[in-house]
C-alpha cells in the first residue's frame, strides 16, 4: 500500500500488514522471544545491521512492526517506535534527546507523571532543567523556549483541563532554537488530529488508551522521522528495553481497526454530555474543546476534526461535593484510565494528578471541585442520569 493514497479509515484497517508464508488474513501474533538464522554468517550480519531481519523481540518483532507501521501511516509519519507504555515513550524520548545542561519546556497541563519525568525526580538528577508553562498564551511559550532548549512538550487537548495549544505557532518557536517539538496526541489520535502536519517533530501516544480502546493492554509509541525513530530512539530502546510485548501489539492492532468510528462516536457523545453539564445549575463550568464557551474553540476546530472523549467540569463546592457526584455513579467506572468504550470518572486532584504539588495543581487549574469524565459509548440518557444522581445531592 502507498499510505498517501488512502484515508485514515482505510489505513486503520489495512496499513502496516505483514503476511507470513501461510497467507493469514488477520494479522499474526508472533509470540516468540528470538528468531532463528540459517547460518552463523546470517546471524552475524543481522546483529551488525548489514542484513535486515528479526533477531530478538526486545527490539525486532513482526507483530510490533505491524503496529508501528500502521500508527506511522495514520499519523502521516515515516516511522514509529513502540514502547511498553505511554510513560515509557515520554521518558525514552527525554533520555534519548537530553544530556546534562539541556533544557526542557513543558506545559503544566499534562499528566502528572510527565512532570515528574521532566523534573527533579528523573531528568533533574541528570542535570537537565525543566521550565513549566502554565498558559496557552504564545507570549509565555516564546519567553520559555530559548537557545539550549532541547525538548518542547505539550498535550493538546490537555489532561484534564482540555486546554488547546497552537501547534503550528509553538512548532515555529521550537524550530528557531533547534529544539525537538513533541505533541502528546493521546486524546485525539490521528483520527481527529495530526500534529506532524501542523509542524510538530514527534507525536507521543499512550496506546493503552484509545488505540486499544477497551482498556485491555498497555503500550506506547513515539512517532516521527526515520532518523529520530529508527536510529536515535531505536538504539536507546534496544539497550534499555522498555519494549512493547508482541501480544500487546497484536491486541492494539485489532483495536485500531475500529478507531475511526469509535473516535467520532466518542466525540459526539462527549459534546452532548458537555452541553448538558454546561446548562446544569450545580455545575460551575465545563472544559471541552468543542464547547461553544471554550476560550480556544476556534483554534480547536482548526486543528481537530472532533472534540474527543474527555471533558472535565467543576461542581459548585469543593472536594466533598465532587466526591458525592463520583460516589453516586452506577454506570461510569471510578478509575483513572481513559480511552475506553466504558465511560470512566475520576477526581484528578486526589488521583491522576495527586502526586503533583499543591502549587503545581493550582497553577494548572486542577482544584478540589474538578471532575474528569472520559466519555464512552453508552447511551447518552443513561450517562446523564448517572451524573444527575450525584449532582442532585449538592
Q: If you average the pLDDT, what whole number results?
A: 96
The low-pLDDT segments are: none
What top-tier CATH class of the largest domain fits best? Answer: Alpha Beta
**Which strand order does the major sheet show?**
1-7-6-5-4-2-3
**Biggest beta-sheet profile:** 7 strands, mixed
- Overall 3D form: globular
Q: Helix tally?
A: 15
CATH homologous superfamily identity of the largest domain: Type I PLP-dependent aspartate aminotransferase-like (Major domain)
Order of helices and strands: HHHEHEHEHEHEHEEHHHEHEHEEHEH
Note the topology.
Elements (H helix, E strand, L loop, with lengths): L7 H7 L25 H9 L13 H14 L3 E5 L2 H12 L5 E5 L4 H7 L10 E5 L4 H7 L4 E7 L11 H10 L3 E5 L4 H4 L9 E5 L13 E5 L1 H15 L5 H11 L2 H20 L4 E5 L9 H7 L6 E6 L3 H10 L4 E2 L9 E3 L11 H7 L5 E5 L5 H12 L3
Helix pairs in contact: 1-3, 3-10, 4-5, 4-9, 13-15
Amino acid at each position: 500500500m502507498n499510505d498517501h493514497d488512502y484515508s485514515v479509515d482505510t489505513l486503520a484497517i489495512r496499513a502496516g500488514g505483514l503476511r507470513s508464508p501461510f497467507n493469514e488474513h488477520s494479522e499474526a501474533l508472533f509470540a516468540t522471544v528470538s528468531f532463528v538464522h540459517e547460518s552463523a554468517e546470517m546471524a552475524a550480519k543481522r546483529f551488525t545491521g548489514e542484513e535486515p531481519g528479526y533477531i530478538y523481540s526486545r527490539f525486532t518483532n513482526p507483530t510490533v512492526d505491524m503496529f508501528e507501521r500502521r500508527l506511522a501511516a495514520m499519523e502521516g509519519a515515516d516511522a514509529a517506535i513502540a514502547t511498553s507504555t505511554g510513560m515509557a515513550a515520554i521518558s525514552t524520548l527525554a533520555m534519548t534527546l537530553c544530556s546534562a545542561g539541556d533544557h526542557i519546556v513543558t506545559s503544566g497541563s499534562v499528566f502528572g507523571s510527565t512532570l515528574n519525568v521532566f523534573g527533579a525526580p528523573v531528568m533533574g538528577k541528570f542535570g537537565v532543567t525543566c521550565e513549566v508553562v502554565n498558559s496557552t498564551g504564545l507570549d509565555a511559550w516564546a519567553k520559555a523556549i530559548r537557545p539550549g532548549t532541547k525538548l518542547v512538550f505539550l498535550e493538546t487537548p490537555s489532561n484534564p483541563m482540555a486546554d488547546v495549544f497552537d501547534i503550528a505557532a509553538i512548532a515555529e518557536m521550537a524550530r528557531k532554537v533547534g529544539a525537538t517539538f513533541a505533541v502528546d496526541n493521546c486524546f485525539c489520535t490521528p483520527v481527529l488530529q495530526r500534529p506532524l502536519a501542523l509542524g510538530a517533530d514527534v507525536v507521543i501516544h499512550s496506546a493503552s488508551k484509545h488505540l486499544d480502546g477497551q482498556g485491555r493492554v498497555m503500550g506506547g509509541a513515539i512517532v516521527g522521522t526515520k532518523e529520530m525513530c529508527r536510529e536515535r530512539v531505536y538504539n536507546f530502546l534496544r539497550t534499555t528495553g522498555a519494549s512493547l510485548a508482541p501480544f500487546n501489539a497484536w491486541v492494539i492492532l485489532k483495536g485500531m481497526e475500529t478507531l475511526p468510528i469509535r473516535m467520532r462516536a466518542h466525540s459526539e457523545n462527549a459534546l452532548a454530555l458537555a452541553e448538558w453539564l454546561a446548562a446544569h445549575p450545580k455545575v460551575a463550568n465545563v472544559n471541552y474543546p468543542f464547547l461553544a464557551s471554550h476560550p480556544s474553540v476556534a483554534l480547536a476546530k482548526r486543528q481537530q476534526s472532533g472534540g474527543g472523549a474527555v471533558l472535565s467540569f467543576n461542581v459548585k463546592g469543593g472536594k466533598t461535593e465532587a466526591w458525592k457526584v463520583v460516589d453516586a455513579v452506577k454506570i461510569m467506572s471510578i478509575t483513572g484510565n481513559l480511552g475506553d468504550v466504558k465511560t470512566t470518572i475520576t477526581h484528578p486532584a486526589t488521583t491522576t494528578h495527586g502526586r503533583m504539588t499543591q502549587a503545581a495543581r493550582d497553577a494548572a487549574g486542577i482544584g478540589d471541585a474538578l471532575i474528569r469524565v472520559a466519555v464512552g459509548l453508552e447511551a447518552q440518557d443513561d450517562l446523564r442520569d448517572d451524573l444527575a444522581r450525584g449532582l442532585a445531592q449538592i
